[in-house]
Write a structure and sequence with these properties.
By secondary structure, the chain is α/β, with parallel strands linked by helices. The protein has helices spanning 39-51, 81-92, 123-140, and strands spanning 13-18, 25-27, 35-37, 56-61, 97-102, 115-117, 120-122, 144-147. The chain is 28% helix and 22% strand. A hairpin with a 7-residue loop joins strand 2 and strand 3.
């Protein structure tokens, strides 16, 4: 009678952290009981979540430094880690809602969410990269491309 909010599994989104490889799990030191998982293990977790009634996953890639550059080139690779993982999930779990993160920092060699040159973040070139990234993620099958970067005032 006095309850204001009721949460069900269908109200949740499972965040999953993706690394390249097969049958690979890498604990995240700053997040106890969480791990970065290879796409095959991501699929296992997504199936388990879906069977429990959780309708959506949000994917966050973790790339090796060798795959990063200052223009986040790998972010738009149609055969990149994130895109392959999205396609795998949509093939095996077509009803699962897959959410991806539009942000340069996982792909950027300098860790910024924007093109960083001469001590400045360059807005216009960054927006072009972010737009291409969103298109690449949507083409892979992402249902929601979530802009978590803080460029062009989106954080506000």
């Amino acid at each position: 009678m006095v309850r204001e909010t009721i949460l069900n599994p269908s109200d949740f989104i499972l965040p999953l952290f993706v690394i390249d490889g097969h049958k690979k799990s890498e604990p995240i030191a700053s997040m106890p009981d969480c791990a970065r998982l290879s796409p095959d293990l991501i699929l296992d977790k997504a199936i388990e979540a879906y069977q429990l009634g959780i309708p959506a996953v949000a994917l966050f890639p973790a790339l090796p430094d060798s795959a990063k550059d200052h223009l986040a080139t790998e972010s738009t690779n149609p055969d990149g880690l994130l895109q392959r993982t999205v396609r795998l999930l949509k093939k095996e779990l077509p009803e699962m809602v897959v959410i991806t993160d539009v942000a340069m920092d996982p792909y950027s060699s300098d860790g910024h969410d924007g093109v960083f040159e001469d001590g400045e973040i360059l807005n216009d070139p960054t927006l072009e990269i972010l737009a291409a990234m969103a298109v690449s993620q949507a083409e892979a099958g992402s249902a929601i491309v979530a802009p978590s970067d803080m460029m062009d005032g989106r954080g506000g």
